[in-house]
């Protein structure tokens, strides 16, 4: 199997028992049209050329693979950091959004609708909308707007309309519901630019394909092939993109969830936001509210491909607490001079905890994706450390 | 005769079954009972609020079905449950449909299970003797519409508008053409729902289809504290509006009007 083909497209919209297209009838034709458009685009060399050009001249790709020399020495491992924090707009979210904006343009859509948690996907979407001359409507939970004010300001500066969502936990889960409602009402002119490997088919697959550039670049950049590949997981797009580059290698794949939003670790199968996957829910089937210091991981579900990778044993999933993530962010900053996002800090925290234990023996080579930079989290951190 | 299917969120108040009885007394032909879900993707503000209120009261599927069983002897109209996939699949569709049937619920509407995902649920519903109602939307292409109509049971639910449930000032222009398209491919009744907010909307929609589902306009009243007696009056007004469609419009006229809209 070639690298490009590793992690195949889902059969019938499913990854094993997970995935599917559980959406209102009003959205089914739009999902089907998107799938067709994506298949055509993905087979079209011109589309790939345009995407490659945008990645290089606009988004700043390839992003660096940085050896974490101090931490490596301290921990007795070889740690390499895939630097998505260096991508334009400050996170891996731009990879997916540029691909979807090109698709939306190809489909003749004039407006992008998106949900956002930490605001990184919202900023990326607002950015692409500005670049492509489209309107952007971003749904964001009121609680997330308060803790990620900087990103709200950025989105508005880019010309996007940010709509506060006041229902439920006022976080990513509710923003996703509201974005899908917004899409139902505007399905003919708007493209739903979904930010993670979640949602109805074809999104989990399409988003992973646009994010696999992370894993493919990292694989080509790494002088030594890693024993372990690790990334944080909320919906799971940076992890899915990273894993895609290594799925056909012998590397262990480790996804790190926030302890308060650990759908793989504490959930059971269910259906929400258009897909079947592992979900935090009560015994009646009501979806539970996640609780994480990291807005991007504060989500009760996980992408269906992760549920499948977990069920088949190809990937493993661990959890990290808020305190561990905050401590890891500080240690990475002081050791390597890199302030990563709170989301990414979960992956760092797992490495710090596991290094030197049977989970991650001394001498291991580890590739870790830093999904984004931490600027957006400074207010939250200042509140925690005061 | 044109049909009226009013909606009620199960468990919205302690005495919620009194509203059911009021709906029935006011002339409902069937009643849709919402089983509240935490993340109702296709619902607008009113039904979201109604669901949240019911959930905060501790309403569960079990409790709602138990309440229904208690008034079962007094309910003579068919009951349809409306809820979301996760509640249906939580213990498996077989268990869920059997529980509905045992509580006297004869139909089921699950807006986030489109026809492509309906195989397992459809079989489970049929085995339990429950009608699985499928929904059609203005954007549904013709071939798919025929499949939906062929696989739907009980009636076909025509979603009048591209949007969520919720009150609107005008009946959507997409309602009548959609109803006509569905009626052309099925003998099942075609009920129009979403945005039927006023008696005049009900009259217009009932002309185009075989009847209407009214949800948000009634649930807003319940949320505002209206009593079962007051809801009885509201449903009676809708009953009169729906009946008016029966009386005033000969079938060929209705057909001509619909054809005009399509063109």
UniProtKB/TrEMBL annotation, chain A:
This is Tryptophan synthase beta chain. It comes from the Bacteria. The beta subunit is responsible for the synthesis of L-tryptophan from indole and L-serine. The keyword Lyase applies. It comes from Actinoplanes lobatus. Its cofactor is pyridoxal 5'-phosphate. Belongs to the TrpB family. InterPro entries: Trp_synth_b_CS, Trp_synth_beta, Trp_synth_beta/beta-like, TrpB-like_PALP, TrpB-like_PALP_sf.
From TrEMBL, chain B:
InterPro entries: Aldolase_TIM, RibuloseP-bd_barrel, Trp_synthase_alpha_AS, Trp_synthase_suA. It comes from the Bacteria. It catalyses: (1S,2R)-1-C-(indol-3-yl)glycerol 3-phosphate + L-serine = D-glyceraldehyde 3-phosphate + L-tryptophan + H2O. One of its GO terms (cellular component) is cytosol. GO terms for molecular function: tryptophan synthase activity. It is an enzyme of class 4 (lyase). The active site is at 32 (proton acceptor), 43 (proton acceptor). Pathway: Amino-acid biosynthesis; L-tryptophan biosynthesis; L-tryptophan from chorismate: step 5/5. The keyword Lyase applies. Keywords: Amino-acid biosynthesis, Aromatic amino acid biosynthesis, Lyase, Tryptophan biosynthesis. Its EC number is 4.2.1.20. PROSITE patterns: TRP_SYNTHASE_ALPHA (PS00167). It holds the Pfam family Trp_syntA. Belongs to the TrpA family. PANTHER family: TRYPTOPHAN SYNTHASE ALPHA CHAIN, CHLOROPLASTIC, TRYPTOPHAN SYNTHASE, ALPHA CHAIN. The alpha subunit is responsible for the aldol cleavage of indoleglycerol phosphate to indole and glyceraldehyde 3-phosphate. Tetramer of two alpha and two beta chains. This is Tryptophan synthase alpha chain. It comes from Actinoplanes lobatus. The gene is trpA.
């Amino acid at each position: 199997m070639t690298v490009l083909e590793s992690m195949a497209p889902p059969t019938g919209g499913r990854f094993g028992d997970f995935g599917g297209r559980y959406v209102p009838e009003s959205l089914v034709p739009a999902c089907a049209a998107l799938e067709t458009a994506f298949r055509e685009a993905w087979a079209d060399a011109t589309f790939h050329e345009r995407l490659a050009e945008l990645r290089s001249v606009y988004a700043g790709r390839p992003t660096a693979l940085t050896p974490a020399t101090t931490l490596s020495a301290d921990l007795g491992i070889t740690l390499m950091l895939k630097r998505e924090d260096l991508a334009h707009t400050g996170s891996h979210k731009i990879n997916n959004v540029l691909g979807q904006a090109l698709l939306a343009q190809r489909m003749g859509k004039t407006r992008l609708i998106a949900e956002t948690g930490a605001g990184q996907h919202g900023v990326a979407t607002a950015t692409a909308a500005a670049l492509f001359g489209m309107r952007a409507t971003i749904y964001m939970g009121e609680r997330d707007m308060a803790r990620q004010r900087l990103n709200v300001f950025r989105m508005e500066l880019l010309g996007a309309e940010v709509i506060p969502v006041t229902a439920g936990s006022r976080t990513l889960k509710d923003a996703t519901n509201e974005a899908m409602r917004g899409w139902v009402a505007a399905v003919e002119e708007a493209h739903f630019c979904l930010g993670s490997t979640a949602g109805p088919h074809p999104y989990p697959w399409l988003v992973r394909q646009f994010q696999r550039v992370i894993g493919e670049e990292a694989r080509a950049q790494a002088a030594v092939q890693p024993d372990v590949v690790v990334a944080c997981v909320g919906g799971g797009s940076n992890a899915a993109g990273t894993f895609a580059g290594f799925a056909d290698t012998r590397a262990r794949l480790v996804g790190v969830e926030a302890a308060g939003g650990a759908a793989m670790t504490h959930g059971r199968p269910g259906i929400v936001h258009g897909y079947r996957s592992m979900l935090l829910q009560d015994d009646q089937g009501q979806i539970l509210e996640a609780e994480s210091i990291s807005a991007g991981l504060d989500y009760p579900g996980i992408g269906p491909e992760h549920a499948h990778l977990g069920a088949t044993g190809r990937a493993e999933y661990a959890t990290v607490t808020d305190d561990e993530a905050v401590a890891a962010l500080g240690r990475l900053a002081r050791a390597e001079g890199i302030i990563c996002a709170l989301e990414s800090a979960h992956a760092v925290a797992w490495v710090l905890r596991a290094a030197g234990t049977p989970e991650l023996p001394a001498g291991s080579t580890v590739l870790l994706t830093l999904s984004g930079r931490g600027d957006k989290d400074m207010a939250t951190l200042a509140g925690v450390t005061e | 005769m044109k049909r009226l299917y009013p909606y009620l969120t199960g468990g919205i108040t302690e005495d919620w079954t009194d509203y059911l009885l009021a709906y029935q007394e006011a002339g409902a032909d069937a009643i849709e009972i919402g089983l509240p879900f935490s993340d109702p993707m296709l619902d607008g503000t009113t039904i979201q609020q109604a669901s949240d209120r019911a959930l905060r009261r501790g309403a569960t599927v079990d409790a709602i079905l138990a309440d229904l069983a208690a008034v079962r002897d007094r309910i003579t109209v068919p009951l349809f449950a409306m809820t979301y996939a996760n509640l249906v699949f939580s213990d498996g569709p077989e268990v869920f449909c059997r529980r509905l049937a045992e509580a006297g619920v004869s139909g089921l509407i699950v807006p986030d299970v489109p026809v492509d995902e309906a195989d397992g649920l459809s079989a489970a519903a049929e085995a339990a003797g429950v009608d699985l109602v499928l929904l059609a939307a203005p954007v549904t292409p013709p071939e798919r519409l025929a499949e939906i109509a062929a696989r739907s049971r009980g009636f076909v639910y025509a979603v009048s508008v591209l949007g969520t449930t919720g009150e609107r000032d005008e009946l959507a222009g997409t309602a009548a053409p959609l109803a006509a398209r569905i009626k052309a491919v099925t003998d099942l009744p075609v009920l129009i729902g979403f945005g039927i907010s006023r008696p005049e909307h009900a009259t217009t929609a009932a002309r185009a289809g075989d009847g209407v589902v009214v949800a948000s306009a009634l649930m807003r009243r319940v949320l505002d504290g209206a009593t079962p007696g007051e809801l009885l009056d509201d449903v009676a007004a809708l009953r009169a509006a729906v009946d008016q469609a029966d009386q005033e419009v000969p079938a060929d006229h209705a057909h001509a009007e619909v054809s005009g809209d399509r063109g």
